[in-house]
C-alpha cells in the first residue's frame, strides 16, 4: 500500500512536469508572447521593453528552467499582468474555487442519489425515464448555456439572484447548480446500475427473506454497497469540477482560480497560467490517488491488486 | 458559438419571456451611484502602467492633466496648468494653477509636475506605452508654480499628449510608494477618488468634494461610480437586464440593437477614433508580387462598396473613410485624396490591364470577422480569391511585420490622440508596420511630425495622404463605432475618444 502511494506520488510529480512543459510550449505556439502582453497598438519599443523586462529574449529552455528553479525554491514568480506575487494571487482565489467545487459536488450528489435509487427501484418505469431524461439533458447541455438559462430565470425574470460577482452566498447558487448539474448524470447512472445489481444479489434476497423492512433493505444494504464506487467517482469528479470551473467562473465573474486562469490566458500571463495549470493537474492526480486509496479501503477485494 | 447562443438566448429573453418583467433599472438612482462594468482588467491602475481602455477611463477620473482638450470643440484649455507658452521648438513653459489639492490633502505644486515628468520619461522606469512619454527630455522647476518642459526633438503633438495619457502624480507619495503602491492606493487631483480597489475585480470611485472649481471638468453630479470587471458580455447584459448594472460599453452591435428595444434601457451608438482599413504589402520581396502593381491595389479599392458595408453591417456611429486617419485628428483631410467609388467592372478592367488573372492570396484578420467575410465576397465578385486567415492580434502582427502577410485587415485607435502623428505615420512612416516603404511619403510624414508650424504640418500631411490614396497602399474603410447600453434614466453623451465622462453624467 505504502509503495503504491509513493509510486503514485512520483507519478504525480512527473505529470506536473509534463503538463507544465506542455502548457509552456503551447502558449508560445500561439504567437509572440511579448507582442501579446504589450497589447494592440504597442510599438516596437514597448514590445522590446516587455521582452527585456520579463526575460522573454532568452531561449525558451532557459526560461523554462529558470521558472522551474524558482518553483523548487518556493518562489512561484511574479504575475506579468497584475505585477504581484503569483502565490498571493492564487491563494486568494483557490478558496472560491474549492468552495464552488465542493458545493457543486454536494449538489450533484443531492440530486443524483435519490434519482438513481428511485430509477433502480422501478427500472424502465416513467420515473426511470424521467431520471434518464434529466441525465441526458445534463450531459447534452453545454454548461455555459445552462448557466445563461439560469441567469435568465433567476436574475432577469425573477430577480432573485445576482447575475455575477463574488460578494455573498447568493453568488454561489447559480454557479453551483450549473456546474453540479453537469456532473450529476455520471453519478446517477452509476447509482442506478449499482443499485440494480445489488438489489438482485443473494444477500438482499436473504435479507428480505429474513423480514428486513423494505427501506432498510434499500438504504442499509443496497445503497451502502452501491455507493462504494460513487465515493471514488466523487473524488475524481471533484478534480474535474475544480478544473471545469474556468467557464462557469468566467460566465458568473466569480473571482476564483478558474476566472484567474481565463484572465491569465487572455493576457498571456505565463507565470500565473503555469501555476494554475500545475495546481489543477497536481490536484487532479492527487484526487485520483485518493480515489484509489479510498476504493481499496472500502472494498478489501481491490487491495490485493495493489 | 458561445456568442451566438448567448445572443439567441438574450433575444429570446427580451422578446418573449423576460421583457414584460424587466423594469427600468433605476436601482442605483436612489443612491446616486453609477454601476459600470468593463470586460478587461487594467493590470495596474497607475495610468502609466497599463494600456487598457478601462485604465484610461479611471485615469481621467482620478487624475488630472496639465492641459484639457474639450471633446466637443477639440480646443485646449488649462487644467492643472493655468496657461502655457511655447518658448522655442523644444521648450514649453507652464504656469500652474494654485490651490489645487491631491486626494490626500497635499497641495499641488511644480514639484509634482517635475517629478512625474522626469520619472515617467526615464526608460528604466518602464512606462508601458513608451510613445506616450519618450518624447520628454526633462522638466525643470522655475518656481513653485512655474515649470519648463523640454522635448527631445521638435514634438508638435506635445500638448495633445499632455492633455491625454500624461497625468500628474503627487511627487512625495509617488516617490515613496512607486507604481505598485499607486495601484494599491491611488492618489490624484481628479474629480473622483478611489475608495476601494480589489485587484482584478473592482474599483470604487467617490466624488471628490474638494475638486478645484476652475477645472474644465465640471464638478461631478453622481456621488459614486462602482466599476466591476466582468469578462463575459452576456453576463454584463444579464446584469444590466436584472438591474445589477447601469452602464456598459463596447456592446456587440446585434446585442445593442436588441437592448434598444427593451423597455427601460437605451442604446447609444458612438463613433470612435478607431479606423478600419486594408493594408497591402507592396514591398519588392512581398509575398504576393501582384500587389507591387498599383493597378491591382486600385482594383481592390474599386471592388469594395464601403458605403454599403457601413450602412448594412457596421451601422450607426460609423462613416466611410477616404484616407487612413480619423477626421477630427489634426492634419487629417480627404481633400485632394483619390476616391475609389464602388465599381466592380472597373476593378476587373484594372486587373486585366495589369495582366493579372486568378489572383488568390491569404487575407489576415483579427477582429470584425463578419465584415471580413463581406469583403471577401466583394473581392470574389471582382474575380479575386481571398482566403480568410483569422487569428489573434499578436499572431497577425507577427505575420504582417515579418513580410509573410500580403493583405491585412487592420484597425487603429490612435490611443485617442487627436493628431495625425498618432495614426497615419504608424503604418506609412517607416516603422516596422510600414509595408509599403514609400520614401516620398515617409519624408512628408516626417515633416508633418516634426514641425511646430501648423500650416507646414497640415500641408505635409495633406500631400502624404494624397500620395497614399493615389498609390493605393491601403483601402481606407470606415470608422469603428462603439455601442453603449444604459438605464434610460441615465443621461450621458458618447465621444469619439471612447471616454465615458462620469463627471458630467446625471440621473433623470
Automatic annotation (TrEMBL), chain A:
* Topological type in the membrane: Multi-pass membrane protein
The chain positions of domain ABC transmembrane type-1 read 94-291
Tell me which domain of life the UniProt entry assigns to the organism this sequence originates from.
Bacteria
Instruction: Kindly list the biological process annotations in GO that this record carries.
Output: transmembrane transport
| Cellular compartments annotated | Cell membrane
Q: Does the keyword Transmembrane apply?
A: yes
GO CC entries:
plasma membrane
Q: Which UniProt keywords apply?
A: Cell membrane, Membrane, Transmembrane, Transmembrane helix, Transport
Transmembrane ranges, per UniProt, are 9-27, 98-121, 133-160, 172-191, 226-252, 272-298
Q: Does the keyword Transmembrane apply?
A: yes
Family as reported in the entry's similarity comment: Belongs to the binding-protein-dependent transport system permease family.
Q: Which PANTHER family match?
A: DIPEPTIDE TRANSPORT SYSTEM PERMEASE PROTEIN DPPB-RELATED
What's the name of the protein? Peptide/nickel transport system permease protein
Q: Which organism is it from?
A: Enterovirga rhinocerotis
* The organism's taxonomic lineage, starting at the top: Bacteria, Pseudomonadati, Pseudomonadota, Alphaproteobacteria, Hyphomicrobiales
UniProtKB/TrEMBL annotation, chain B:
Q: What is its main location?
A: periplasm
Q: Which Gene3D superfamilies match?
A: Dipeptide-binding Protein, Domain 1 (3.90.76.10), Dipeptide-binding Protein, Domain 3 (3.10.105.10), Periplasmic binding protein-like II (3.40.190.10)
Is Transport tagged as a keyword?
yes
Record's InterPro entries? Peptide/Ni-bd, SBP_5, SBP_5_CS, SBP_5_dom
Q: Tell me where on the tree of life, at the top rank, the source sits.
A: Bacteria
Annotated signal sequence is 1-27
**Gene Ontology molecular functions:** peptide transmembrane transporter activity
Q: Which PANTHER family match?
A: OLIGOPEPTIDE-BINDING PROTEIN APPA (PTHR30290:SF9), PERIPLASMIC BINDING COMPONENT OF ABC TRANSPORTER (PTHR30290)
Q: What is this protein called?
A: Peptide/nickel transport system substrate-binding protein
Species in which this protein is naturally found: Enterovirga rhinocerotis
Amino acid at each position: 500500500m505504502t509503495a503504491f502511494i509513493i509510486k503514485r506520488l512520483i507519478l504525480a510529480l512527473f505529470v506536473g512536469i509534463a503538463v507544465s512543459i506542455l502548457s509552456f510550449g503551447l502558449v508560445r505556439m500561439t504567437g509572440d508572447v511579448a507582442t501579446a502582453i504589450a497589447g494592440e497598438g504597442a510599438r516596437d519599443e514597448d514590445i522590446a521593453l516587455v521582452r527585456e523586462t520579463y526575460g522573454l529574449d532568452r531561449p525558451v529552455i532557459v526560461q523554462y528552467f529558470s521558472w522551474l528553479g524558482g518553483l523548487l525554491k518556493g518562489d512561484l514568480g511574479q504575475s506579468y499582468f497584475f505585477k504581484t506575487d503569483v502565490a498571493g494571487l492564487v491563494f486568494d482565489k483557490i478558496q472560491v474555487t474549492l468552495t464552488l467545487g465542493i458545493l457543486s459536488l454536494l449538489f450533484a450528489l443531492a440530486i443524483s442519489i435519490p434519482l438513481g435509487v428511485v430509477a433502480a427501484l422501478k427500472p424502465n418505469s416513467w420515473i426511470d425515464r424521467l431520471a434518464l431524461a434529466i441525465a441526458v439533458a445534463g450531459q447534452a447541455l453545454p454548461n455555459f448555456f445552462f448557466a445563461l438559462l439560469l441567469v435568465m430565470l433567476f436574475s432577469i425574470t425573477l430577480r432573485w439572484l445576482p447575475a455575477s460577482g463574488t460578494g455573498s452566498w447568493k453568488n454561489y447558487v447559480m454557479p453551483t447548480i450549473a456546474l453540479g448539474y453537469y456532473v450529476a448524470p455520471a453519478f446517477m447512472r452509476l447509482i442506478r446500475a449499482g443499485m440494480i445489481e445489488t438489489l438482485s444479489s443473494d444477500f438482499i434476497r436473504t435479507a428480505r427473506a429474513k423480514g428486513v423492512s423494505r427501506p432498510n433493505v434499500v438504504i442499509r444494504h443496497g445503497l451502502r454497497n452501491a455507493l462504494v464506487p460513487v465515493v471514488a467517482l466523487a473524488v475524481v469528479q471533484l478534480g474535474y469540477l475544480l478544473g471545469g470551473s474556468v467557464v462557469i467562473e468566467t460566465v458568473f465573474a466569480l473571482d476564483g482560480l478558474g476566472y484567474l486562469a481565463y484572465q491569465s490566458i487572455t493576457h498571456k500571463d505565463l507565470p500565473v497560467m503555469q501555476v494554475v495549470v500545475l495546481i489543477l493537474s497536481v490536484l487532479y492526480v492527487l484526487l485520483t490517488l485518493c480515489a484509489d486509496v479510498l476504493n481499496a479501503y472500502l472494498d478489501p477485494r481491490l487491495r490485493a491488486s495493489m | 458559438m458561445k456568442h451566438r447562443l448567448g445572443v439567441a438566448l438574450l433575444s429570446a429573453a427580451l422578446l418573449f419571456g423576460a421583457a414584460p418583467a424587466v423594469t427600468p433599472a433605476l436601482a442605483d438612482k436612489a443612491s446616486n451611484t453609477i454601476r459600470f462594468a468593463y470586460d478587461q482588467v487594467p493590470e495596474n491602475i497607475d495610468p502609466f502602467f497599463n494600456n487598457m481602455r478601462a485604465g484610461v477611463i479611471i485615469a481621467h477620473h482620478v487624475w488630472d492633466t496639465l492641459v484639457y482638450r474639450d471633446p466637443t470643440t477639440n480646443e485646449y484649455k488649462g487644467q492643472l496648468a493655468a496657461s502655457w507658452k511655447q518658448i522655442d521648438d523644444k521648450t514649453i513653459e507652464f504656469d500652474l494653477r494654485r490651490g489645487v489639492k491631491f486626494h490626500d490633502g497635499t497641495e499641488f505644486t511644480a514639484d509634482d509636475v517635475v517629478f512625474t515628468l522626469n520619472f515617467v520619461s526615464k526608460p528604466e522606469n518602464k512606462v508601458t506605452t513608451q510613445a506616450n512619454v519618450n518624447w520628454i527630455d526633462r522638466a525643470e522647476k522655475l518656481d513653485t508654480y512655474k515649470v519648463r518642459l523640454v522635448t527631445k526633438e521638435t514634438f508638435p503633438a506635445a500638448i495633445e499628449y499632455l492633455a491625454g495619457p500624461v497625468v500628474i502624480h503627487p511627487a512625495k507619495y509617488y516617490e515613496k510608494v512607486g507604481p505598485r503602491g499607486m495601484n494599491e492606493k491611488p492618489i490624484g487631483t481628479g474629480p473622483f477618488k478611489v475608495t476601494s480597489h480589489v485587484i482584478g475585480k473592482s474599483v470604487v470611485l467617490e466624488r471628490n468634494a474638494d475638486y478645484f472649481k476652475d477645472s474644465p471638468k465640471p464638478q461631478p453630479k453622481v456621488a459614486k461610480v462602482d466599476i466591476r470587471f466582468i469578462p463575459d458580455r452576456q453576463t454584463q447584459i444579464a446584469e444590466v437586464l436584472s438591474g445589477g448594472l447601469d452602464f456598459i460599453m463596447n456592446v456587440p452591435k446585434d446585442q445593442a440593437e436588441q437592448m434598444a428595444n427593451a423597455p427601460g434601457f437605451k442604446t447609444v451608438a458612438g463613433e470612435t477614433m478607431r479606423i478600419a482599413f486594408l493594408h497591402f504589402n507592396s514591398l519588392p520581396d512581398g509575398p504576393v508580387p501582384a500587389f507591387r502593381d498599383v493597378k491591382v491595389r486600385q482594383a481592390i479599392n474599386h471592388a469594395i462598396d464601403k458605403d454599403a458595408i457601413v450602412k448594412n453591417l457596421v451601422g450607426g456611429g460609423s462613416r466611410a473613410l477616404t484616407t487612413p486617419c480619423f477626421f477630427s485628428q489634426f492634419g487629417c483631410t480627404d481633400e485632394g485624396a483619390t476616391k475609389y467609388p464602388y465599381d466592380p467592372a472597373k476593378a476587373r478592367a484594372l486587373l486585366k490591364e495589369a495582366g493579372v488573372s486568378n489572383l488568390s492570396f491569404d487575407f489576415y484578420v483579427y477582429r470584425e470577422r463578419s465584415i471580413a467575410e463581406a469583403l471577401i465576397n466583394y473581392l470574389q465578385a471582382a474575380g479575386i480569391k481571398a482566403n480568410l486567415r483569422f487569428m489573434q492580434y499578436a499572431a497577425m502582427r507577427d505575420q504582417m511585420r515579418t513580410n509573410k502577410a500580403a493583405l491585412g485587415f487592420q484597425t487603429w485607435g490612435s490611443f485617442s490622440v487627436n493628431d495625425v502623428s498618432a495614426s497615419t505615420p504608424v503604418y506609412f512612416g517607416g516603422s516596422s508596420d510600414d509595408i509599403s516603404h514609400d520614401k516620398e511619403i515617409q519624408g512628408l510624414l516626417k515633416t508633418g511630425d516634426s514641425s511646430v508650424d501648423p500650416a507646414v504640418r497640415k500641408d505635409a500631411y495633406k500631400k502624404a495622404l494624397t500620395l497614399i490614396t493615389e498609390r493605393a497602399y491601403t483601402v481606407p474603410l470606415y470608422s469603428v463605432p462603439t455601442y453603449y447600453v444604459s438605464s434610460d434614466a441615465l443621461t450621458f453623451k458618447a465621444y469619439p475618444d471612447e471616454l465615458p465622462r462620469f463627471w458630467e453624467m446625471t440621473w433623470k
